[in-house]
Amino acid sequence: MDIQEIRASEKNKNQVSIGNFLSSFISKRSQRIGKEIIVIGLGQAMAMVGGLVGVRILTELLNPKNYGQLALAMTMVAFTNKAVFGPISGGAMRYYASAAESRDANKYIDALKGIITSSIGILISVGGIIFFVLWLLIQPSWLMLGIFTLCFAIFSGLNSILNSIQNAARRRITVALHQGLASWSRFTFAAALIFLFNGASTSAMIGYSVAMIIVLSSQLFFFRKNSVINVLDESDSGSEISLWRKRILNYSWPFVIWSLVAWAQDASGRWALQFFGRFEEIGLYAVLYQLGVYPIILASTLILDLVAPILYEQAGDASNQERMDNVFNLNRKITFLVIAISGIVFVLSLLLHEIIFSILVAVEYRSVSWLFPIMIFSSGIFAASQSMSLFIMSETKTYRLIAPKVITAFAGILLSFLGAYSFGVAGVVAGYSLFTVFQFAWIAILVGLSRRKL
Questions:
Q1: 435 Cα distance to chain centroid
Q2: How many domains does the chain have?
Q3: Distance CA 295, CA 112 (A)
Q4: Is residue 29 a part of any domain in this protein?
Q5: CA dihedral angle for residue 249, residue 255, residue 257, residue 260, rounded to 10 degrees
Q6: Does the residue 16 lie in any domain?
Q7: What is the reported pTM?
Q8: Domain interval for residue 345
Q9: pLDDT, tens digit, for every residue of 355-385?
Q10: Is residue 21 part of a domain?
Q11: pLDDT digit string (tens) for 423-437?
């Protein structure tokens, strides 16, 4: 055998070896992603089923007026999650991989602790002022409801931050376990306290708080058990902690701006109905929102929770064009998948809305089932917008999302009040639908323009 034949033989062996390695790598990667999809799916399924069962139980125990009061209280929980804990969770997820890769997890966690402590202090201070005003106005029922609403908001916010870190670390089983536990325990304790003490919305909120304390305790146990801090150096530098705090805050602050108006838009339907004296309709709209928006958001969250850490890891510091091309292509496929799933659910809701409501809610709430498909359509469009936004977040240019999210949210608020004044629940649903289409179109244009600049 001459030298050329020997070299050709060695080249073929190397190619076979490389091919086997790539095949093995792809197979292992596919297996891991497949397992993650199954685990995340189980977690979201447990949360979804728990939520639907909870709606059925609570609508049996609470009349539309009391259910509406609970829905109004939950808008304040949504406020703290969207404006305070949500942005922190986003920053925590985005920079976890960078902190772990640079072996800076100690400083990253310390920076997060400082941000969280300051945020809780502000919430308690503002809450104390509000509670004092309620006491002066002699509203003891609202005062007690407000106190336990704040407790639940803080506990659930801390839980969401820990979930984000565990998700970024791709500890999917831990995340799935606590998603299911949070959903089932919340409604179980709420129903038990309403049944035992007949305290309506206040008893429900106390039950929510007790359940979240249990979930948070479990979260902390798993976090300490699996924390990357245990394997990293112990040298903490104050300046480096400040640097991590600055990174997280710089990434997160745009979330605060658009989340505030997003919360206002999200809550505007319920508060608009309250403003125009349509008290009974608040509970009807709350049920529509929970059944029409909640399942679609959970299903899309299943996909986004799986993909977001992969996108962020692939993007790195967003300076490599080839890596960002890959991020864009994957993000586009995910968005199409979200739209496809939403379309299927929309068609099913058109055919089965009366049956669904007869199973999932009490008789008093079934008159609005015809609006259910519209809520499904709107939530699907909204979920697709959130999916597209991941590309902008991967670029770490979150400030570019401020204008589309803020302006469309203000338009949504205006549409909610106009709809509530003119047509009640149906008008609010129509306003929400127009808002989601407006936001989807704007973000799609923004992503397209961003893509051209790569």
A1: 19
A2: 1
A3: 31
A4: no
A5: -120
A6: no
A7: 0.66
A8: 35-453
A9: 989 988 888 888 899 999 999 999 999 989 9
A10: no
A11: 889 999 999 999 999
